[in-house]
Amino acid sequence: xxxxxxxxxxxxxxxxxxxxxxxxxxxxxxxxxxxxxxxxxxxxxxxxxxxxxxxxxxxxxxxxxxxxxxxxxxxxxxxxxxxxxxxxxxxxxxxxxxxxxxxxxxxxxxxxxxxxxxxxxxxxxxxxxxxxxxxxxxxxxxxxxxxxxxxxxxxxxxxxxxxxxxxxxxxxxxxxxxxxxxxxxxxxxxxxxxxxxxxxxxxxxxxxxxxxxxxxxxxxxxxxxxxxxxxxxxxxxxxxxxxxxxxxxxxxxxxxxxxxxxxxxxxxxxxxxxxxxxxxxxxxxxxxxxxxxxxxxxxxxxxxxxxxxxxxxxxxxxxxxxxxxxxxxxxxxxxxxxxxxxxxxxxxxxxxxxxxxxxxxxxxxxxxxxxxxxxxxxxxxxxxxxxxxxxxxxxxxxxxxxxxxxxxxxxxxxxxxxxxxxxxxxxxxxxxxxxxxxxxxxxxxxxxxxxxxxxxxxxxxxxxxxxxxxxxxxxxxxxxxxxxxxxxxxxxxxxxxxxxxxxxxxxxxxxxxxxxxxxxxxxxxxxxxxxxxxxxxxxxxxxxxxxxxxxxxxxxxxxxxxxxxxxxxxxxxxxxxxxxxxxxxxxxxxxxxxxxxxxxxxxxxxxxxxxxxxxxxxxxxxxxxxxxxxxxxxxxxxxxxxxxxxxxxxxxxxxxxxxxxxxxxxxxxxxxxxxxxxxxxxxxxxxxxxxxxxxxxxxxxxxxxxxxxxxxxxxxxxxxxxxxxxxxxxxxxxxxxxxxxxxxxxxxxxxxxxxxxxxxxxxxxxxxxxxxxxxxxxxxxxxxxxxxxxxxxxxxxxxxxxxxxxxxxxxxxxxxxxxxxxxxxxxxxxxxxxxxxxxxxxxxxxxxxxxxxxxxxxxxxxxxxxxxxxxxxxxxxxxxxxxxxxxxxxxxxxxxxxxxxxxxxxxxxxxxxxxxxxxxxxxxxxxxxxxxxxxxxxxxxxxxxxxxxxxxxxxxxxxxxxxxxxxxxxxxxxxxxxxxxxxxxxxxxxxxxxxxxxxxxxxxxxxxxxxxxxxxxxxxxxxxxxxxxxxxxxxxxxxxxxxxxxxxxxxxxxxxxxxxxxxxxxxxxxxxxxxxxxxxxxxxxxxxxxxxxxxxxxxxxxxxxxxxxxxxxxxxxxxxxxxxxxxxxxxxxxxxxxxxxxxxxxxxxxxxxxxxxxxxxxxxxxxxxxxxxxxxxxxxxxxxxxxxxxxxxxxxxxxxxxxxxxxxxxxxxxxxxxxxxxxxxxxxxxxxxxxxxxxxxxxxxxxxxxxxxxxxxxxxxxxxxxxxxxxxxxxxxxxxxxxxxxxxxxxxxxxxxxxxxxxxxxxxxxxxxxxxxxxxxxxxxxxxxxxxxxxxxxxxxxxxxxxxxxxxxxxxxxxxxxxxxxxxxxxxxxxxxxxxxxxxxxxxxxxxxxxxxxxxxxxxxxxxxxxxxxxxxxxxxxxxxxxxxxxxxxxxxxxxxxxxxxxxxxxxxxxxxxxxxxxxxxxxxxxxxxxxxxxxxxxxxxxxxxxxxxxxxxxxxxxxxxxxxxxxxxxxxxx
Length: 1519
Fold this sequence. Notes:
This protein is mainly α.
């Protein structure tokens, strides 16, 4: 045979052999072992490459399908096992360079849009070559060839990324091969000895393509069609590799001198630099910029090229700083390079715009400029002193030119423009100071209304200006400029609010930190400007001085309300200056008031503005003056303070517009603020006056309170969702209502006692109305920091403010009842419950001779009786869809109400109102709506029945009557067919609501004790005798929809009754006899009902979990009954017997069959496990013969259930509670043999090989059962056996931990549950695990647990699990921990460094959501907890405290932490520093490296200032 195939080589070379036959022969020769050719593999490689080369060189003609076949054949060879085995044995194969060249050409063809062969095949060949160390030499030995390949692939990848509108997803193969080529190239580039050659190749061939690719990856909007590997992994890896290639090629240490020579040009050493130029690069910056600043041909290409340039220049500058400017070296080189990069954006060297600059590129240019300036800031390039002394302010002059460029070409609609100015301000405030007036005008005073992003950037800049001048103690200078800008001629009506919320907060903080003398200087500046420039011309219409005066007045108000108040420690000169200021301000206020009183302010558009100014200044003076007098005894108010203040307030309250026109919204609010102040003053004085005088002032207080509330205004609530940002300057007709409500809610407790009933009901009605308006609105209307009327009203209810005001809360309840009643037509209501419409006085008190009964109680009794009578008559009230929507909104309001704060009368009336609705309301349109509505009603009533005064309802109506009325109403609805979808979620939710209501009501009856047995007996008899129960066994019982509905309600009610009765057993013998009789009656009815359902295959009608719960309750009820009977009988008859045990056993067998073969609903699984527990208890109590078999069956079934492949971790955790109870029943008194069976089953399940085999759920089952077993209480012999085998469990769990940690998907599914089980074993085994080896093994295994999860939720779970293991060890095994202290500290330091890395400050794109921040904060709190505990047992850590501090500061030096994370970590490390001796501090100061030492000094300084002094102060007063 060998002889036959030996001629294949000749046939391959023969030109007469057809190409398809040649290809078949070549394939056969490669795979056949009988084809003998010398050096066969090399021959076939050479033939394939030669054939392809001849075709592409046009020497021979080959069919295209054969060419495709040749590439496929080459690909098969490159990826064959045969080739891999041969190369691994040391044999060599030479690949011709022409193959690599052909691959490069094919990739270039595809980039140009040509297709001659499958791209996937060519890329696969390329991958096969590069992944083989032997074959990849073809590329790695030829640097230019590899550069060509990388350039082609880069262009191809960029072309694919540009096709945004293409429906075809991105090819994963292209990105994988490109990453492989890029990695190979990076390795080869680092091996190149000639750095100049690398620089030339990269700038000429790779720089522009790589930057374009990086830009496209950064800016691509990924779609769901794109492969997730490209989105999440490959794109990030590609960017990092591109960065590494560019940085290592363009900015090596060898090139520093060349960069220095180019950017630091001076006439003195030009000759020296020219002489050196021959050794290095000539103009590297120029070469780089010439390739980066490539102009496109078309408009679209020009836009793309500028975008690439603007994104690339900051990146290149970052590479420069990282390479050359670390430390104090080469800062000037970095600066000059930045100037060249800035000018490359389209500006001249004098910082003017080039003629070719496109105005549409300003956004990109400013973003690039911002990044360049931020990099300059981060690397500390600009040293003000060095620049001024050594470099003739070359940097300062450049930044001034840059500032002028920004101001001359203001782009106030672009956020980056503001951020650039902020960066220049941070560099040196002198850069912007010459243009301070222009800055304040452009970004603060005269800015136009802008979008949110621009607004945030603008406010951040203004805040930065305030903070900068505050730190420099130059705020007066800033305010002087600000006043000049405000007082310039301008159309003030077009100006925005001067002090929005963000700026107001920044100003307040700055003024708090400013010396009092400067604050007073600012106030004097504002007041003088107002007196001498604005007030004399306030009525001149042309100058609009009234608006300017108002702006300045707002500024004065903000300053006075923000700086620190005078107190008894304030120096006397400051107090005197303040008094002078207040006197001057008082004279201004009096002059303005006098103008109004003498009608000197004529009518016109400015009158309202002057009025606002007057009221604002009056309110400011009154509040500030009162505050100073309260807190500083040295301060004396001008004149008679009390009379002046009262007079000023009264005069301000009498201000009004001409001809009694309505005062402006701001004016009204300021007057109400003054009225609140007046009320406070009178209340303060009332504490010192006699009762008669106080009584004489009550009318005045009532009048003032009514003025504040203004019920006519409150009742007109046009839009309860209008937002107010809490600033006076933004109050207008739209925002007045939330501002007014904010004032009311803030002072409600102050003036509520002085309101009459009418005003109280007005307020309550408005609260209810605004809440009803807010519920239908979708979304949250408070995404910003403002408030609305609906938000204020909701906060009033949720924060329990109204609960502290009984009259107000009672009014709200009455308004809610009234709203419910108004939903129904009066005629319908009079026919069902007329007493609900009547007042207490309309009910006769002397009926039935009960003269002691109050009118309100008599009325409530009448309402209850009418409801019961109407239920018996089967009355109903229909409502429309509109009424039902309002009904649901009212129910949402009701859910917020606090039943504990209701009076007994309000509670009873409210409950009866809801009870009536639940019994009579029907919907006209859809029956499903009624089901949901009734479910909500029953849920609300169940909640109301859980309050402390719930028993008061039983004074108006008997408990059994309530229960019977509810069931009668529900049975009536069922008979009418009003309920549909009996297997749907709405119906099941309704059943649950009914069950909760009945349970709550029965619990109220039981807790009240009075007539408890009578009520329960009556209700049980009613249920037994009901038609629904008696008709169950008839033939059509399960077929009729109404019967099915009644059946389910019947079972729900009786099962709930049984559960409550079982819980009440054992309190007294007499009571138990009655209750067991009730149980017997109830279970006797339930048994045939449930059996009928099960035998007639009606279980789907009830839902599996429902039927299991009912049978479980039946079994528990019957067991409780027979156990009680056995206890009361003689000793011979004490054997417990359950009559229906055969039924329960068959049900048990059915559950075992359905429990674990396939996925089941979670509620069914939980109820089934509960039934198994109840049945096993019953089998033990009745001493069944097969208890041992039941024990094994149940255990195997539970193990199989938890091992199900369809069981998720969350489902297993949800089942743990029920499984734990079952396990407790199984092991509480089991035999030693059975317990050994359990332990052996668990041990055999912990097989590590199952982790890799994909059967981790079987191990998870065993892990969960071990954890639950460890928490159970055993008999002594079983406990001994469990803790004897526990070391084996620990060893197996550690192996599972190590294996599962290798597979990232199993971290959450198996690794963390294993850690939790180890924690439980360590905690519970504190007195049983004597060998320290097992604890040390656990410590060692913790280092394998991964902490690099992509999900923050998974990261927090792993973090907490590791922490809990460490905490269990330090808490329960302190001696063992000391033996392995280095391992323990390493594990803990791993947590510390991990939370520092995750808690670092991140960019906008890296920031997670609110949940992620909360999870990270919890991790930081766990670290703080461990530090605190370690410090409390410091004797064990005396030697290592300094080591722990050193570890902490080393990790801290690498990152900048988020403030909230840093706060917790800092508090923790402070506790460790508490235990460091003086010698430890000296040791740290001596041994730490320079950068770390600075971090430690800052830490120790803050520790000494904030923590140590406080601790020493506490110790001083500690006994």
